[in-house]
Design brief:
The protein has a six-stranded antiparallel beta sheet with strand order 3-4-8-7-6-5. The chain has a four-stranded antiparallel beta sheet with strand order 2-1-9-10, with no helix packed on it. By secondary structure, the protein is mainly beta. It is globular and about 40 Å long. The mean pLDDT is 94. The chain contains two helices and ten strands; from the N terminus they run ααββββββββββ.
């Protein structure tokens, strides 16, 4: 079993394509509206593309109109939060608790959801597995 927290940059580069590496390991952001999983609407689960840890149930996904896949709730214990002061403002970064990869940010601006939160995630950081189907990388 791989201990993902102990992988170095070269090992991550071997495991991930260049775009996913930039997002997951260098805290990059894909362009809005370009993600492969943005309009995915089937039942299933979303996991971390880097380590496979399940992060979100598809039933928590919603169209926030922001250009990135959005969820109102993460699986308990699947993510951790880091204060992010880049871009001259305060945001809260969301990282996978299994491998410490960057997934996106969380914002408290979704009042029409059960939690009021919007987990704004990069498709490139996710893998979607539809119920009874084959996994699709974002």
């Amino acid at each position: 079993m791989t201990n993902f927290l102990n992988l170095d940059d070269e090992q991550w580069k071997e495991r991930l394509d260049e775009e996913s590496y930039q997002v997951l390991r260098q805290a990059g952001t894909e362009r809005p509206g370009t993600g492969a999983l943005l309009n995915e609407g089937r039942a299933g689960e979303y996991s971390c593309k880097a380590c496979g840890q399940v992060l979100f149930d598809a039933e928590t996904k919603f169209d926030a109109g922001c250009g990135w896949p959005s969820f109102y709730e993460a699986k308990e214990g699947s993510v951790r939060y880091i204060d992010d002061h880049s871009l001259g403002r305060h945001r809260v970064e969301v990282r996978c608790s299994g491998c410490d990869s960057h997934l996106g940010h969380i914002f408290p601006d979704a009042p029409s959801t059960p939690t009021g939160n919007r987990f704004c995630m990069n498709s490139l950081a996710l893998r979607f597995t539809p119920e009874g189907g084959t996994a699709i990388d974002g």
